[in-house]
Amino acid sequence: MTSRKNEKNVQDQPVDEEMPPLEDIDDELIEEPQINEEDDDDGFILAKKTNKKRKLPKLSTDADQPDAKKGKDNVNWEMRKVSVPPHRYTPLKKNWSKLVAPIINELKMQIRYNLRTRNVEIRCPNADGNKTHLQKAADFVQAFLLGFTIEDAVALIRFDHMFMESFEINDVKTLRGDHLSRAIGRIAGKDGRVKTTIESVTQTRIVLADDKIHLLGAFNNLKIARHTICSLIMGTPINKIHGNLRSLASRLAEQL
């Protein structure tokens, strides 16, 4: 029994292990936290923690960079845009070379067709271009897109007294259904004879596009043609219209 107790006491006693020797640490190797010190009003030193957030680099803006395209982008180009209706895409494609020739050769303008916006864009070759020629080119393209032939529309470029005018039948008299169709038929006439007679007597060109009417000619001639067409819309008999046109033609012949 005594031997067992002695063994138990021996096991319960702690074993002395050798401790590693302590090493002296230099105070210079210990990094102290950086503290910004400021004096308080009472003389105390106030400690502020440094902001350890990472500062992002400053991005350069367009204002800081020199303008490389200063001479080109800052020019105010004078431009005209003419929208192309869907039913005039094919005629424009077929007659593009004829349409462009007088604008480039006679007016000295730049022209292109924008496929994305479906517009014909015309601009002056420089900032000091002739605005009158630019407007003439836009009117010429607009006349072709309204339905006039290039041979007739080119008069807007070559003559200063040529104008273009458009109006609707409902602007003269409100008509619907068959009444509107009969009014268009009276203006055109059988096989287009009434329309051709008005054009030859008044020396104008007329385009009938559904209920819209487009006129091209001199100012006084446009006035006579418009009055004749309005009379047909209001219901004046065609015989009376022909009589008025014959008398007008005789007066014009006497003046010449």
Automatic annotation (TrEMBL):
Coiled-coil region: none
Highest taxon above the source species: Eukaryota
Localization terms from the record: Nucleus, Nucleolus
Region entry Disordered, spans: 1-71
Keyword field: Nucleus, RNA-binding
Biased composition (Basic and acidic residues): 1-10
Protein name: PNO1 second type I KH domain-containing protein
Taxonomic lineage from the root: Eukaryota, Metazoa, Ecdysozoa, Nematoda, Chromadorea
